[in-house]
Amino acid sequence: MEDTAALVQLDEERRTIDNIDAALIHILAERFRCTQRVGHIKARGGLPPADPERERQQVERLRALAEESGLDPDFAEKFLSFMVTEVIRHHEVIKEAYDGV
């Protein structure tokens, strides 16, 4: 026999999760629009696609934010690493386009 109250609570939590997921996608899209602009600035300025010092600072900052928020800092670092890898790939493509002009 199913617990109706549990099913209602489950549905409510899942709707909240769905809303958060949608917000995350919108935030990530905006973040990548910003990083695309950064890629163009770097390419025009002759700067390298990667910035290891900035990446190191971001890891420290996001690990601290994760700890403050009750999120696993290792997870936060892995997530950041995934994003940074993708951003650098985009910056390399942008740089190649400027170099080819």
UniProtKB/TrEMBL annotation:
SMART domains: CM_2. InterPro entries: Chorismate_II_sf, Chorismate_mutase-related, CM_bact, CM_dom_sf, CM_II_prokaryot. GO terms for molecular function: chorismate mutase activity. One of its GO terms (biological process) is chorismate metabolic process. The keyword Isomerase applies. Signal peptide: none annotated. Its EC number is 5.4.99.5. Pfam families: CM_2. Keywords: Isomerase. Residues 4-95 form the Chorismate mutase domain. This is Chorismate mutase. The lineage of its organism: Bacteria, Bacillati, Actinomycetota, Actinomycetes, Actinomycetales.
